[in-house]
Each structure stands twice: as C-alpha cells, then as structure tokens.
From TrEMBL:
It comes from the Bacteria. Residues 111-140 form the Iron-binding zinc finger CDGSH type domain. Residues 19-79 form the Divergent 4Fe-4S mono-cluster domain. Gene3D superfamilies: CDGSH iron-sulfur domain, mitoNEET-type. Signal peptide: none annotated. Keywords: 2Fe-2S, Iron, Iron-sulfur, Metal-binding. This is (4Fe-4S)-binding protein. The keyword Metal-binding applies.
Amino acid sequence: MTDRTTESAPDEKPKLKEYEGEGITVTFEPRRCLHAAECVHGLPEVFDLSRRPWVLPDAAEAGLVAEVVRRCPSGALRYHPADGSVEHPDIPTTVRRTPSGQLVMRGGLLVTGAYGDRPEARVVLCGCGASGNQPYCDHSGPCAEPDDDVPGRR
Ligand code: SF4
Ligand code: FES
C-alpha cells in the first residue's frame, strides 16, 4: 500500500492522491471532494479521515471498495481494480439540478475543462459560477448554505 501525491503543473493534470492496494487502487482528487461522507459511512475501515493514510484499499474486499467508491457523487474518488476492469457508468445518464444550481450527473460523461476532456462517470458541476475549480463545484457558492439540497456538506 502506498500513499503518493502527484504534483502537476497548473492546467495540465489534476492533483490526485493514489492509494494502491493488492486488489484495487483508489485515487482521490481533493479539490472535488464535497464531503458527502458516503465513503466514510459506507466503509469506515477503508475510509477514515482521522488516520494517515486515510484510505486503506486492502481493508475490505475489492468489490465492496468499488461499490462504495461509486457512491461518491463528486467523482473525487475513483477506483482501478487490479484485474484491469473499469467502472461502468450508469445507464441511462442522469442529471439533477439542486436548488443552488449544482448539476449532479452520473453516466458516460466527457467533461471539458482546464485539464482537457476527461471521461467521467460521476460529477457535480458548478452552476453558479463561483467555484474556483471549474467546471466542478467546490462549495464556494450558494450551494454551501446548510438548507440547500446538495450532495454533502463541508
Ligand atoms: S465527495 Fe466523495 S470522497 Fe468526498 S466525502 Fe463524499 S464520498 Fe467521500
Ligand atoms: S454550484 Fe457549488 S460552487 Fe457553484
């Protein structure tokens, strides 16, 4: 198990942390995490914010880890099974707009932004224009209000 941080030049690649396990590798893109806590509630033995590293992919069966990663609405978490399989996006693709304008999307997506065209299966896009991590929501705008119907809280 390793905990590597990939530092990249601006506008080239997103900064990802990689947590490598025997059966599955989990990557984490901190700027996209909207703290929905699906991960820590879903598999606390794997995802534990009080621990370093906070992700231990070998602490549960790889299929279970993948299932919980797929619950991450923002796509901050992704997984790469050791057998080379890939995440199958939801069919049909779904889009939900929250009251503050976030676009919560799941499906076979190609998101264009500062890092070029990125294939995605789960994203929360900014609809208010305030995010500093466009096109993704970063909870800078009205979506941060506690009474909004957003996928997760700071
Ligand atoms: S946005 Fe994803 S990584 Fe962040 S807390 Fe929620 S489920 Fe976990
Ligand atoms: S909708 Fe969340 S920052 Fe814009």
